[in-house]
Amino acid sequence: MSEDARVRLVRWGLIAAALVALEVVPRLGLVNPIALVPLSEMVWQLWLLISDGILGSHIARTLISIVVAGAAAVVTGLPLGVLLWRAPRVQRVLQPYLTTYYAIPIFAFYPLFIAIFGLSALPVIIIAWAWAVVAIVINTVLGLNEVPAVLVKVGRSLRLSPRRLFTQVYFPAAVPYIFTGLKLAASYTVIGVIASEFIQAEAGVGWFVGFSYNNFAIQNMYAAILLILAFAVLVNSLLLRLERRLYGRQA
Amino acid sequence: MLLTIEKLSKSYETASGSIEAVEEVSLEVGEGEFVSIVGPSGCGKSTLMEIVGGLVEPTSGEVTVAGNPVRGTDPSIGIVFQQESAFPWRTVAENAQFGLEMTGVEKDESRRRAQEMLELVGLGGFEDRYPSELSGGMRQRVAIARTLVMNPKVILMDEPFGALDEQTRLILGEELLRIQAATSATILFITHSFDEALLLSDRIVVMTARPGRVKKIVENPLPRPRDSTIVSDPEFGRLSGELWESLREESMRALAGERE
Predict the structure, then answer these.
(1) Inter-chain residue contact B130 with A250, CB threshold 8 Å
(2) Which range of residues forms the domain containing residue B26?
(3) Where are the alpha helices (DSSP H) in B103-187?
C-alpha cells in the first residue's frame, strides 16, 4: 500500500471511529444519555423532523440566508478587492484594519443590528456578509499584488489594453488566491448565519438548535447539529472538488 | 540595419541621488544576425533590454526597427524573459497561442501556427500539459514558442537560460541555434556567460561595469553551423579566454562597486 493510501485509510478510520464512539459511548452509559444521544437516534430524529415538515421552513430560511449573504459577499468583495488593489495608498492606510479585522468578535454587535434592522433574516444576513466579505477583499488584494511582474511584462509586450491586461493576466494569475478567499468566505457565511440565528432570531436551523436546547429537547438539538455538520462538510467538499477541477493541474 | 540603438542612456532617481544605469549605448544589429551582450552583473544589461523592448522609457537616445522609431512596446519586437513567464493557468498550446489570440487571429490559424512553433522548440506531444507539469527548461521553451509565434522582426532574450543548470543551458543553446537557422530570426541575447555568447552569436558586445557602456564589440570567427561540441574546440577556449580578459577587469570593478 502506498503512503498516500495509508494516510487516507487512517483518515477515514478516524471518522469511522468517532462515529462508532458516538453510538457506543452513550449506549454503554459511559456518559449521561440525556447529555449525549446515540448517533442512530440523532439520525432517526433528524429523519422524523424532516419528514414531519417541522424543519423544512427552518432549513429553507437558513439556506436562503446563506445564499444571499454569500452572494452579497462575492458581489461586493471582489470589486472592493480590485479597487483597493488599484489604490495602493488607500491599501496602505487600511492594511492594519484589514489584517486585524478577524480579531473583532463581530457577533457582539448583534443587538445593534437588531435595533437597526429589526428581528428578521436581515441582521443575520448582514452579520454573515460582514464576516465573509473581508476574507474575499483581503485575498483578492493579496492575489493581485502577488502577480509576478514578468507575466505583466509579457502582456505589456503584446500591447494589451489595461482591460485585457486585467482579464487575461492579472485576474487569472490571482485566481488561486481569490479562490482561497471564496473558500474562507463560504465557511464564514455558514458560521455567520448559523451562529447569529443561534444567538437571536425567530427561525432558522441555528435558532432551532438554541430553541431545542432551552426546552430540553436534546434529541431535536442533536438532530439539527448533525444536519449543520453534514451541510458544512458538503459545502466544503463541493468547493474542494470545484477547486481541483478549476486548477488542479496548474499548481 | 534592422535594429539600431543610438546613444541610449538611462538614469534612475533615488533617495541618494541619480544613478546612471546605461550610458550612451549604441549598437546595430543586421537582419538575421545573432548578437550577444555580456557584462558583469549590475551593468544595466537588463535595463538596456527593457528599453529596447519598450517596457522602460530611456532618459535619452533612440531605438529603431527597420528605420521606424520604437515608442513603447512594439509587435515587431518579441521578448523572452529570464524569469518563469509561461502562464500557469494555460496549457502549453494555449500559452503558445496567447499572442495570436490577443491580436484576434482566427482560431484554426493560431492553433496551426502555435503547433508549428511548438514542434520547432521540441514541445510536440506536450500541447495539453500545464507548465507546472514540465521541467524548467521546457517551460522556457514554452516562452520561446510563444514569442516565435508572433513572428517578430527582432527577438530580445534576457538571460533566458540563466535559471537553468549547465547541461540544460548547453542543450537549449544548441536548440536555439537550430531555431534561429530555421526561422532566420534576428536575436539580441543577453547573458553573463561568455561561453554561451560564443556558442550562439555572430558578434559579442562586452559592456563595462556600471554605468553600462559598450566596452568593445568582438566578431565571433567560429564557423557555422555550430553545435555544443564546439566548447571543446581549442579556438573556442582561446576566444573564451580573450573575452574573460576584457570582462575580468569590469567584473572586478563591479564587485568593488558592490562593496562600497
Answers:
(1) yes
(2) 3-76+154-259
(3) 107-120, 136-148, 166-183
